[in-house]
Amino acid sequence: MRRTKAQQRQDTTHALVTEARTLFARHGYAAVSLADIVDGVGLTKGALYHHFDNKAALFHAVVEQVQSEVAARVVAAAETSDDPWLRLTAGCEAFLRASADPDVQQIMLVDGPAILRWHEWRTMDEAASGQHLSEALAELIEQGTIPEQPIAPLTHLLSGAMNEAALWLAQSTRPRDLDDTIVALSRLLDSLRHPKLT
């Protein structure tokens, strides 16, 4: 069967994003040229510009894909339990483990904020993992597991702590650092629980 134009566009976009993701993860955004990307998939720059305005727009699509995959891993881990507290802790651990992937670190945490600018990167982060974290905290506050407090600052504090930990892990050379970070995160989360429940 002949592919429709829409399918051809979708296939081309997918090929460009996939190749760009591989190159950005391996070499970093600054070291990758548009020529590198189109050569890798056998296309012309004109074909690329038909789908993306520039390299930054293509990178935006790559970051979006990576953040979506990390969020899916967080949700999958959280949904293994019916207990809201276990959902929170499992989701946070899954985020750290996913973020320990060097490819994820390079694209989402190193180049992402620098290339997309902080505000745009934060907006994308909130739409992915940040929204799930906020909802989990809201449920725990509602049921009394965490004392009543504004959700937005708590969400940003925890999200920032986990992003910073992931960046630190990217520079780490000790194999145990990921496990030690997860233990520290568990203690940090436990400190949020209502005193009557600890």
From TrEMBL:
Record-linked PROSITE patterns: HTH_TETR_1, HTH_TETR_2
MF (Gene Ontology): DNA-binding transcription factor activity; transcription cis-regulatory region binding
Gene3D superfamilies, sorted: Tetracycline Repressor, domain 2
DNA-binding region ranges: 33-52
Record bears the keyword Mitochondrion: no
UniProt domain HTH tetR-type: residue ranges: 10-70
UniProt KW keywords: DNA-binding, Transcription, Transcription regulation
PANTHER family membership: HTH-TYPE TRANSCRIPTIONAL REGULATOR BETI, HTH-TYPE TRANSCRIPTIONAL REGULATOR RUTR
Protein name: TetR family transcriptional regulator
Organism: Haloactinopolyspora alba
